[in-house]
Amino acid sequence: MDKFIIEGGSVLTGTIPISGSKNAALPLMAASLLLDGTTKLTNIPDLVDIRTFCNVLRVTGAKVTYSAEEQSLLIDPENIYYPESPYDLVRKMRASFYMLGALLGRMGEAKVSLPGGCAWGPRPVDLHIEGLKALGASIELDKGYVLASRPAEGLKGGSFNLSPSSVGATVNLILASVLGSNTCVISNAAKEPDVVQLCYFLKQAGADIQGEGSSQITVKGVKQLNAVQFRNASDRIETGTFMILAAMHPLNKIKLTNADPEELGHFLSWFHKTGASTKIDKDIIEIIPPKIINAVSVATEVYPGFPTDLQAQWATLMTLANGESVVTDSIYSDRFSYVPELGRLGASVKVKNNSAIIKGPNKMAGTSIMSTDLRASVSLVMAAMFATGISQVLRVYHLDRGYERLEDKLNGVGASIRRVTEQHESE
Q: Cβ of 188: how many Cβ atoms within 10 Å?
């Protein structure tokens, strides 16, 4: 099992390229099963989750070819014959549940395991199931699997209100309804860029979709979708992560390339409240860190509000801020597994209900810390980089799910991070 050995105290200078978005790529991959012909997706990051989902697609009979060198993915669904996504693969990542909508749309039936993924907090799939039922699918639960079917002509259509709004459920309802002869309306739909990009992709392939980016999406079923070539978006969570990292030391001089500032939503305004500033030129973001970091409280919200996927990183920044701040996660209540580990480094952070209360600035010293999920992992790496001395960050396999070549990118701008593999490590 891999771990990072990090020597803290480095000043970061240079350019970090932003990878393609994992969260945007996975719905595109699922949607490619609905298209006739071979689809080519570009700007696809080389991540464990991407490779896992390639295998999920291959189980159905689809031909999938990924090139890490070219960051491209070819998907040919012509020989799909097996409408199932087994537990052994789906348990590794929740996004595999997109196969429910994709297989239902392509084959009229699906057998998909209930999902796994990060260890924190319950994220039920009730909305996905109830939404599909409302639009005309027949669904049963059997021994940990969702069994779904629809009429041969497609879903009967209708409307469904998502309460609360959900990216995953919005994606599944779109995938299931885009092929057919009826109209489906999704109310309180997710506005995230990942959903908007999925709609753009499907519309380029011939879909009839209206309202993407708003709270109501209307899908009019079509008889056929044709293969396309499509470029995946840049990763806005990676962009936000590196922006926060750049703001953690007053001498840092970091530029981000291949970024998409317009997809950051309201994050930029919160970021500037810390005293940091930015210079933006198309897909390049230069970060000017503050001399003294202001304590800024945030509460996560659905897009374009503050992202839940950046709250752990924000809390880490606030450990260096001047004063008290509160980081509240109104999306997921149990996403604070990183807090005890920050405490081991010397941070003053307490959890109360769904909020982390942070008093800073803290002087942190290196020690051994353990990551438990993707975003918590990167927040601990960030904290270790600005602690004095040596830290060990254990179980960094979580990072490999969502951050492409993280240590290479950070070492390239002056960090001191070494990956070590220990076969019989006791953690």
A: 18
Q: Residue 310: pLDDT above 50?
A: yes
- Do 199 and 69 share a structural domain? yes
**Residue 229 falls inside a structural domain:** no
Alpha carbon dihedral 76, 80, 82, 87, in 10-degree steps, equals 10
Which domain-ending residue is among 186, 220, 254?
220
Q: Does 228 reside within a domain? A: no
Cα–Cα distance, 83 to 109 (Å, whole number):
7
Residue 263 · residue 310 · CB < 8 Å: no
Instruction: List the structure tokens of 303.
Output: 């897009």
Collapse the DSSP code of 237 into the 3-class scheme (helix H, G, I; strand E, B; otherwise coil) and give the result: helix
**DSSP notation for 259-313:** --GGGGTTHHHHHHHTT-EEEEETTEEEEE--SSPBP--EEB-STTSB-GGGHHH
Distance CA 54, CA 325 (A): 41
199 catalytic? Reply is no
From 170, 193, 220, the end of a domain falls on 220
CB atoms within 10 A of CB 143: 8
**Greatest CA separation for the chain:** 64
pLDDT at 122: 43
Give the separation between CA 34 and CA 422, rounded to whole angstroms: 42
Using alpha carbons only, give the angle 80, 138, 92 rounded to the nearest 5 degrees.
55
Per-residue pLDDT band for 119 (boundaries 50, 70, 90) equals very low
Q: What is the pLDDT of residue 120?
A: 32
As a whole number, mean pLDDT of residues 393-404 equals 92
Which residue, chain included where needed, has tokens 């939503």?
Answer: 265
Could you give the number of structural domains in the chain?
Answer: 2
Out of 54, 118, 184, 199, the active site residue is 118
